[in-house]
């Protein structure tokens, strides 16, 4: 204990990080089962990653089609 601290003074509140908040939410949802919480978190992360990759692929397709259409439009003129 610090020398200048009062003996009965409350400890400063600790702030949790977003990661700790998310981990706690998964643990609460899994009713305290850490393994189930970990599996759920990984499954959700992988699902989010797959969705992001799908959207990126779709955007790439649309951009490519835009270039092809523009090139075709220029050759028709």
Summarize the SSE layout with pairings.
Elements: H1 18-29, H2 34-76
Name a few traits of the molecule:
single chain, 77 residues, mainly alpha, 2 helices
Helix content: over 70%
Overall mean pLDDT:
83
Largest sheet: none
Total count of strands: 0
The general outline is: elongated
Query: For the terminal residues, how far apart are their CA atoms?
Result: 82 Å
Low-confidence stretches: none
Class from secondary-structure proportions: mainly alpha
> How many alpha or pi helices?
2
Tell me the fraction of residues in β-strands, as a range: under 5%
Q: How many domains would you count in the coordinates?
A: 1
User: Strand-and-helix sequence, N→C?
Assistant: HH
Radius of gyration: 26 Å
Folded structure, characterized:
- It is a single chain.
- This protein has helices spanning 18-29, 34-76.
- The chain is an all-alpha fold and 77 residues long.
- It has one domain.
């Amino acid at each position: 204990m610090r020398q200048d601290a009062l003996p009965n003074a409350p400890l400063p509140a600790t702030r949790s990080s977003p990661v700790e908040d998310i981990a706690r939410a998964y643990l609460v949802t899994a009713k305290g089962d850490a393994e189930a919480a970990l599996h759920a978190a990984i499954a959700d992360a992988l699902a989010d990653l797959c969705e992001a990759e799908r959207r990126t692929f779709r955007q790439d397709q649309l951009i490519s089609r835009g270039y092809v259409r523009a090139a075709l439009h220029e050759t028709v003129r």
